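Record pair follows.
FIRST:
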Amino acid sequence: MITFTDVENNEYQAQCEIEKTDAVNGEKSLSGTIYFGQEVKANIAKGWTLSFLGEEYVVVTYTKNDKDNTVAFSAVQALFYKMSKTGFYETWNGSHSFTSYLDALFSGTGYTYDNTASVAAFEKQDWGMSDRLSLFNDIIDQANVEFYVDGSVVHVVPAMGSDLSTIVRKKFNLDTAEIQTDNTNFATYGRGYGAYSNHDDTTSKRLEVEYKSPLYDYYYPKFGAIEAVPVADERYTIADNLLAAVQEKVDKSWAISLALNLVDLQSVGYKYAMANPGDYITVIDENINFSDKVRIIKITSDYDIRGTRTKTEVECGSLSFAEQQKTSQSTLSNVAAGKIPVPNEWLTSQVQLATNSLLDARTELSFTDQGIIAVDKSDANKVVILNSAGVGVSTDGGKTFKSAITADGVVADRLYGNLIEGVAFRTSNSNGFNMTIQHGSIDFSDTNGTAYGSLSSTVDAGTGNPNGVALSNAPGKILSLNQGAADGKSVPVFQITAESTSSKPVYNLLGHLKSHLKFNIGAGAWIMNNGKIEFSADDTNNQFEVNPNGAAVLGNFTVYNGTKNAAQITRNGIRATPAYETAENYVGDIGENKTGQYNTVKIDIDPLVYDMVNTEIGYQVFVTPYSSARVWVSQRADMSFVVESDTPNAPFGWELKAHRRGYESQRLVDTGKTYEDLKKMEGLIPDGNQNVQSNS
């Protein structure tokens, strides 16, 4: 009986024939015909669901047939339906981590994900504004990973299935087979183009690789190099990674599909595990001269109204050319005939090791008061004990059991598996430093319980939901990012210091900062220090300095298309006073005096001003009378000048301008910049060169 549920969650029973389809990465659907269950046949409508083999499916189509009083329907697994009916109303650009994409898509859907694939961050443009299922399939394709659904959890894995030792053979457990090949995209040679040596210059040299398949030499005499479409992706900066992408494209360019009708031997008591999507099996059919290891892409199973599986059809795809070279036809035939064992490379190394150890064991069993004791006949040190307390494995004749399962837990030197889940995990080094993984956090401490820091999630203050990752130090402890060295030691590059507190954070940047600094802070950007801050553009000389008394420029100071101003407080706000500019480099001084009773006065140049100027090449003195008398400069000497008047005691003002010592020859100094250079400087000349006058 199949349980159907309406929109109001009322349940109804019906008997149906079901065709169930499972495929790699995606399709998980049902189609069926309802024969018995009048309430279901009469009332089935939009929003109905059904439970089949422990999974929820959503009815998407149904057809009522009044001739034989049946209802045909189709349904999809609930995850695919709900994700396809849920929008993602954001647009993302740029590079993000794989988990960032997954977090965004699964947030608020009622489904979670478990990712065991290692995927580097990748870039998307205009990603979003679509249904979540389409976006999910898009990132799954780009990440080159696969997934399967278990209840409300989506498991993202590097590849589904297992490399089975299962052999499917004609007249044994294979009814019919149909093979189809596609040579459309077949290639034996490929090239790849990665990052430019100068990423801002597309004419610079580019990372380039090439690959020849194992079949290159065989086909070359007749066809030459059969080339695949090049892989062109600037994100590749490492030659080996780019070569792997090209190799995969070439080696998988010949597609082989195989449709099988398997006899389900489980139904007659034979201990044969029906394969799953993603599994690799060996198929042998002498009638079509086929013997190869293939991957199951899709499984379609028929179930009668009693829920009994009556037929299973399997659609397979072959391994790539490179993988096919590893397995010869004779090996497959000998395995199928039982003449040789399954080759080791068909299993992972640890599975093979465990399998060989178990199958090769020659064991003597003893039933004692301590329990069942198994002793290896060829090595009495290898002992296994089984009793009500648990199971223990010893390699020293039963003195110690380094591997054991008891009510207190599991003890083992090594654990192997694709995923280890649990509440807590702890590891320690010889110095008594512990790392504990528990409750979604990694905590660092010592054997005395002193905390050093943690790696945990950050949470949204409003919702309490995780929104990021935080690496934190405990108060009074150091958090350091170090650069490793060849001798195994390391030196700190960035440190949060022991005196740092949450109210006054402090860090040391011990390495060289190599970055384009950009700040996006509403209140401005602050670089602060209690002492002196120095800036240099040549990594040797201090060229700009900020100190408690102000700022200093140690070198030339040039202002482009602007003014040098002093800010003055006035009754109408703070006003800027631009500096006086001249064509040559002058130092000036100003004063006033009287000519005296003999109509003349000598004015000495201030010794400090004299030190700054060169009066030997001439200087200028400008005088202004402050009476009706006429005044003039009658003499200019190195360290003084003389002013005379036509009446005694004539008051006057004077101004001296002399060339700055060491810069006497400077006049309208060429900066080396051109008008075209200025046009490239953002904001300097927005609408043309307003500061150039011309008579033309």
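SECOND:
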Amino acid sequence: MMRRYLTILGIIAMILLSACSSEKNTFTNRWFHNTTSRYNAVFYAKANIGEIEKTIEKSHREDFTQVLPIFFPIDSALIDQNEELLVDVRDFASKAIDWHRISKWVDDSYFLLGLADYYDGKFDESSNTFRYLNVNSKKKRVRHRSLIQLMRQFTDIGNFEDAAYVIEYLSKESGINTENKFLLYKTLAYYYDQRQDVNGKIGALDRAISLTKDKKEKSRINFILAQLYQREGLDALAYSYYNEAVKGNPPYELAFFAQLFAQQVAELNKSKDVKRVRSYYDELFKDSKNKDLRDVILYEKALFELKQDDVQEAEKLLILAAKQESNNPLQKSYIYQKLAEINFEIKKDFKTTKYYLDSALAQIRPTDKIYAEINQKKGIFDNYVTHYEIINKNDSLIRLSQMSAEEQEMVAELFIKQEEERLLREAEQKSQQRSSGIFDNLLAFGGRGSGESFYFDNNLAMQRGSIEFYRNWGTRPLDDNWRRNIQGFQSSTRGNGALGPMSDTREEDRAEEQSSIIGQLPDKKSLLAQIPKTEEDVNLLREKLEESYFELGKLLYFDFKESLMSIEYLESLITTYPNSNKKAEAYYILYLANQEINGNPTLYVQRLNREFPDSPFTYSVNNPDAIKGNQAFLESSKLYKEAYEQYYAGNYAAARSIIRSTLENYPLTKNTSRLILLDIMVSGKVDDAERYKYRLENYIQTTEDSQLVKLARNMLLALTGEQVEIRSEREEVAMESQNNEEQTSETEEEAENEEDSPYRENPNQTHIFVIALDPEKARESKNLLADLETFHAQNFANSRLRTGNMNLNRQEVIFIVSPFNNAERAIAYRNKFMDDFNSGSIEKSDKENSFLISIENFQELNRRKNLNEYRQFYRRVYK
């Protein structure tokens, strides 16, 4: 019996051993390898991919105020943190291929390898794998899944042509199973989203939603569709999809926002409907489950009130929303952004708009989608406030300088009194806003009301006391006899219980609060010291005032589209400063602004022709239909070269004729200043010396190109005969001729580059400092971020600089330092970095290859992934 049992065991062992062979294609072999491959290597590889995808989903914080992304964004830093999972995927999938070559799970294993490479950002490797499976796999399921993933990858990197080819190929395929069809339409929606084709995106999502049984997935897609329909103005459809999104037990936040946004698109025909919606918001606010979402509720209620045209109530709700505690800084940014919109578009309060934009920007990171938009607007409003405050301050100081000393003192005392009254009003408001607590209620039974009869609990009393103290004693330290007398008692009680430390802390708090109040009061002596005493000081104020009137008028017309306000400032400029060197341009803007309001633009055409016949602005108003843009630049470049050759040959009349016709046909191009200077050079040959001198002086005052101004100044010095170390006019002409030949030969190429370049010069925008490394060196540079933090602590402690890194593409990893308010500050940082930054993580060449980029251009670079393309722009603009 035993012998028989052993024989059976031996036969089974032999069968199993023979089944281990990966070469023999027998039933037993196939069964063994299929089972082992599926339930071991492939199972664990799939599990790890699933874990990676869950981690990506969990790390993503949904911004429900924006249309939700089709796929959760992949953060390269997160992938780096989970690299071990991808290593295991590759290990398991490779074993399934090597050890179980005859199993039916080999193609699935290859697909998992491609997916691991995709998540790791190795697009070449993953693309090759998916292409291989499409050609060689006999399983339609794997082939179709590979093509869908390939389509997503092409869309990721902006290769829409290849993505479209895959779409067309798949459209002709038959036998696509339901799971792959769902992924196909979802990926198609992603493709249309990246192409900004809303209709295509809606159609693809609509097909996808009918192909999944996953309730959570359905809720999310319904929510996205509702958002899209709402933005298209189809409120009824949006309302329906928001209600569908609530079904299927979705995550709490998604359900909350679906119900919240449904109120925005609900049809309200009667006043009771409006009351119902307001009550709905109020009930949401009271619900303790929504404690962390109260800022959102108030924000949405504010938007609702704006739709009812109740701007005052909306603004009140937004201010209240900004004060709520929140874990979502983006939401705070939206609140401040909306307050900025109200103050800009409705109240026309540009100064307040600027401060709300400051608050909005402080809540977000440069990589957030709305950062570039807010930062760009902020730069414009920063300029507005700067010039607005210069006008108010300088105008007041100039008027004060014309008063007697006694009158100046009276004005200063009145100003201080008004400040005291303002501080008292603010303190009273704070006292009224103080919330009642349990101790206030207990004190009320003792006849003390809210407790505010106690001096140090009463803001108004504190403020009055501080002001009275300041009037009598000035800013002397709070260390009088009574305080010195009790110091011994305090020090003896500190070690005996809580009274000592509590008393000491409270006294320090009171001193600090009183000191801060006094610090807000202006000092009469310092106020009087600001008033200019000499004519030279007054003239400096007038120069700044003249510049600010012009810049504000220009800003109001071109950036704020406020033609009437622009006219007001520019008319003040030409009335107050009739000899301003900005007068011609002011006339031109007044001409444009009067066209906008159907005013009298002809008046300014006449003034330009009478007062500035040779101005480029005059040429522009005389020929309003002239060709502009890049074509005008190219044509004017060719004509400039031709005119210069005529000038150099001594054919001055022919040169002037070409110059004048070019300025008329192509006014206000980048060549305009060069053409005018060449015309002045002609004037030096054919006109009298006074005319030549006048034109040079005017050109120096009105031209912004520093190199051309230097050239004109040297010509003027040569004309007046001053003995200075400069080139003669003849030498300048020769130099200009040589430069012209070099520049003109490059003009068309430069124009083409500028036309083709997706990047724009914007020095006033927020900038980022970037170090680019290849992936291998980046992995070795583990201490780079820490070294940068140390460098910042030592040299930029108050700048609040932030560091980070990301994969730009498969060849480059970039390390980022931000933010810098403008290009000037970024350049100063890079100079300091080049001189003083030391790290074993990077080489000298890496430092030299570091660059600066504006936030708008960074968004474009991140989309295009072409670092060499940006470097060409960087070298041309920044170096």
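COMMENT: The beta strands are 767-773, 802-807, 813-820, 851-854.
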